[in-house]
Amino acid sequence: MKFVSMVYAGLAVSLLATAIPAGAQTQTPTQAAPAKNTDPNRIVCEKQQETGSRLNSRKICMTFQQWEEQRRRDRENLQDAQQRSLEPNSG
Predict the structure, then answer these.
(1) Where are the domains of the chain?
(2) Residue 80 and residue 47: Cα distance in Å, rounded?
(3) Distance (Å, rounded) from C-alpha 18 to C-alpha 10?
(4) For residue 21, with 0-12 CB atoms within 10 Å meaning exposed, 13-18 middle and 19 or more buried, which class applies?
(5) For residues 30 and 53, what is the distance between their CA atoms, to the nearest angstrom?
(6) 58 with 45: CB under 8 angstroms?
(7) 3-state secondary structure of 63
(8) Which has the closest alpha carbon to 71: 44, 52, 36, 33?
(9) How confident is the model over 71-90, as pLDDT tens digits?
(10) Rg of the Cα atoms in the chain
């Protein structure tokens, strides 16, 4: 009986010892992750589905800066369309 309780005690201690490093892993790292390459002149290519087709796609290549500008314009156009849909009809 005494041996069994000692085994259980040993198991409990080992479980507690393994739980401590797991808790340490949840802390935030002191070093930040390296920044991605955001050179505005690097070429980025994306595959885009053609409208009206499930099979056809096109590969479009632009600079990083052009992609960012395209996304900004798309976002503005979407916001404008949403705003216009909320306005009451005056006709």
Answers:
(1) 38-91
(2) 26
(3) 12
(4) exposed
(5) 48
(6) no
(7) strand
(8) 44
(9) 999 999 999 999 998 887 76
(10) 29
Q: Which of 49, 81, 89, 44 is nearest to 64 (CA)?
A: 44
Which single residue is written with the structure tokens 């041996």? 3
Residue 10: the pLDDT is: 57
Please check whether residue 38 is in contact with residue 29, taking contact to mean a CB–CB distance below 8 angstroms.
no
pTM: 0.50
The separation between the first and the last C-alpha atoms of the chain, rounded to the nearest angstrom, is 91
Q: Which amino acid is at 53?
A: S
H helical segments located in the chain: 2-25, 64-86
Q: CA 24 to CA 28: how far, in whole Å?
A: 9
Sign of CA dihedral 79, 85, 90, 91: positive
